[in-house]
Amino acid sequence: MTEDTSAPQSPIWHPFTQHATLPEMVKIERGKGAYLYKPDGARIIDGISSWWVITHGHCHPYIQSAVQAQAEKLDQVIFAGHTHEPAERVAEELIAITPKGLDYVFFSDSGSTCVEVALKMALGFWHHQGSKRQRILVLENSYHGDTIGTMSVGQRGVFNRPYDPLLFTVESLPFPAAGAGQDTLDALETACRESAEGVAGLIVEPLVLGAGGMLMYSTDVLREMKRICEKYDVLFIADEVMTGWGRTGTRFACEQAGVVPDIACYSKGITGGSLPLAVTLCHRKIFDAHYSTDRAKTFFHSSSYTANPVACAAAVANLELWHREPVQENIDRIAAYHGKKLEAFRDHPRFENVRQTGTIAAVDVKVTDEGYLAGVGPTLYAYFQDRGFLLRPLGNTVYILPPYCVSEADLDEIYDAIADSINHI
Ligand code: PLP
To answer: What is the pTM of this model?
Structure first.
């Protein structure tokens, strides 16, 4: 450490936090709806759903009471060789609401782990059939998590440079920016056709690349990518960890393109954002490739808390809330309001790349050093924090990804703060 030799007050090492430049953590005491509250009662509008997880609002009473009831009944049980009602209900409901053709549900506990599971399923699928296919294709600027496997399929750069020797080789396709979708599709087709060792799968964040800078692409490109994968028998893996649960305007982004992935990853909003849980869904053929009296073909993946009953109860409550409350109406309301509010940014001299997919809205502040380490990032973050907003720009990209209970008045405040922020940088 070079900047500051004074020891931090707390022994906690926070995620994606440079303690040398951000010595003070914001203490949060409670949350309700779209708001977080500090110990002194100060209110913060949660403009990013607390890292894209909260969907129905903080501390939703329906989820809270389901969690409480389950915690009193069964807290945890080994999931190898055992099952329980909340997990069965989550699986049954997921099969019913996800694109038809996803037949099996594997539980895990975070976005990264459900993507790891997806990658292992894909490689296991080919391996157990005696195929040598191992190559994974990815989209430029992707983010799929921070474990070694998920970093391997993510964009290489500042996030993972020190760990480069541990990362496996993948082939990166150009990001399908507006007007450049054909380049991506051509690169995909070439990679599928010409890869010597054979392509095992393509993994994509459908419609929106989140951590890569809220980069958006069309349903047409998504659909075409799936078509090319089908043509070459390449597994199509949809990482809906961020895009799932309504963020892009439909419950799952793939729905909009009519795409049925071979493997799909969901986490974050699966419990309404209340507890950690994740699932990887797959087509029957992938389960079948592991189904054998030969025990060496077992799917060797687990974590201690696989399908934790309390987290599953929260997921059941979340799934029920999609029936009980006007969730889709709220999503449509937010999407329409973004559309209206973003107009003011379109011809603005200091903003560019105004974009929206469903409930996700983003603008870039014009700078000369764009990217995640853009100098304006920390300044903007501090400005929003001082004004009572949780907005965490990705470099010079300011985005809004709110919980679905956010009001128009809250959004007005957020948009006003974003417009004003450029006067303070
Ligand atoms: N995949 C995508 C698309 C994500 O956006 C994220 C996290 O933001 C992950 C995977 C990793 O999820 P987690 O942070 O829960 O491990």
So the answer is: 0.97
